[in-house]
């Protein structure tokens, strides 16, 4: 549903409330209806599908979260600008297990559009550091880890940061992997 339709619904509800107050003298119901008009206005700034996806992520149900995100077909026409980053952030979190290669681009888009909460930015930087480390870019991973550590003021991700730092200390397998056929190169 287009985001501006919610304003139209709110205007209709406010008009109904004013009608109840002014013409039918039902002040109590009119006030209740006018207060209820705040729901579509709030849903303009916080999309219901994103709220439901966050709820499902909290319950660790990735399938339902991705189902709610798939209800958003065109994010620029359905979401407020402040929600663009969270849309890509949630998409990255739900697709991280199935398609880890797609996660890096979505997290970069989420950071470009902006995330309001520090711990969300820290999680995005941590995921980017993990994908940079997996691709062999240790300096970029180190920089992203330091940024994530600074953003994690509550200390919720210290274990994950420590785990990635431990992985950085391990040698990369590409440099130390030997070809088993190297020894028999000269026999043929």
Tally of helical segments = 12
Euclidean distance between termini CA atoms? 69 Å
Helix content: over 70%
Major pleated sheet: none
Question: What global shape is seen?
Answer: elongated
Unreliable sequence segments: none
By DSSP, the count of extended strands is 0
Following the backbone from N to C, one meets helices and strands in this order, namely HHHHHHHHHHHH
Q: What is the percentage of strand-forming residues?
A: under 5%
Radius of gyration, CA atoms, in whole angstroms: 25 Å
The mean pLDDT is 86
What structural category characterises the helix and strand content? mainly alpha
Overview in brief:
The protein is mostly helical and 188 residues long.
Q: How does this structure look, described?
A:
- With 188 residues, the protein is mostly helical.
- The chain has twelve helices and no strands.
- Helix 5 packs across helix 7.
What are the salient characteristics of this protein?
188 residues; mainly alpha; 71% helix; 0% strand; elongated
Write the layout of secondary structure elements.
Elements: H1 5-22, H2 27-36, H3 38-45, H4 48-58, H5 62-70, H6 75-78, H7 84-95, H8 100-113, H9 118-134, H10 138-151, H11 158-169, H12 173-176
Helix pairs in contact: 1-2, 1-3, 4-5, 4-7, 5-7, 7-8, 8-9, 9-10, 9-11, 10-11
